[in-house]
Amino acid sequence: MTGLSSPSDSLYMALTNELPAFLSKSLLQCKSLPALPSVALRVLDIARSSRATLNDYAKAIEHDPALTMRLVALANSAYYARASTSIHTCIEAMQRLGLNATLAVVLGFTLFQYAQGGNYRNRTWQRAITSALVARYLAEQLCPDKSGSTFTLALLQDIGILALQAAYPEEAEALYADTALSHGEITLSEQAYFGCDHTLVGAWLAAKWGMPDHTVMTIRQSHESFLLNDKALLCIRLSGPIADAWLSRSPASQLAAVLYQLKTVSYISALKIDEVLHNVQQQTDILANALNMTTSVEVDSMTLLAEAHQLLFQHTLMLSSQLEDQKQALASLRYPDENQKEHSRWDASLKGQRSGLIRRPKNK
User: Considering the entire predicted model, what is its pTM?
Assistant: First the structure.
């Protein structure tokens, strides 16, 4: 296991300068800004390796006795303890909980304890967990060796929201309380409130923690276009919109919009979205219970995907019809003379027939 790379002063300063001056000042003066303990940083470092074992994670977590006790207690809870045998060690707890739940507990209890506001705190946490699961299952199909790191990076992509909530609790309450807003609408509102969105704030915070430059820039670019060749980064960029669809009041229409955007990605045919959604459906219930979240959203993955494909088909038909209408209108604009001549010939012929000026052949 390699240690965390030292923070890049140049990147940290560049991100600080990119923040609006009033915002960087407020963030630096905020005493409740989210912070990662050393054990969480070690766990993030381990997750970057495709050869990490549960034992590697356990050794890192055991440096924090309180966190170890939390994991053991959770693994012995009624939800997990199907067997009568109690467990007592960190590695046993991880084996029972699974890596997804373990990572979510380690990072979740150290980060989301800072998030204020009941409903939106839960909503932010749910999106983070769902995004992380989606990213992992996408990566297992596109870049299996990076599935662990994509899980943690996707889990961290919205940490900027936590920082904004800490520095501006009243503004954040007005901004984030409406859970009906889409993530895109939230980003636009952040731009109006703060002059930037939470991806920049999250990248700045990660740089301040001393996280590797690659991690910092992944958070910064996590909400950008799907048109890229980096498959691991694509998994992270896809994870948020799919999570938004999963948590939406109209999941089928939002998922259809994501599928439509994916048409532009050449290698996306290799993805099995149905498997991703099925796995997310299974895991979210487990993690919701493990992390004391409210009941996860009730979604049938197969029905959701079928409805999304049907909406996408209807949308494609509508676009094809609109395109044909536009082509015909464009042709009439490009060749008005020919169209006018043809119309005039037809009109003259019709008038001639009506006036008897055109002789018809006699019947023999």
Answer: 0.75
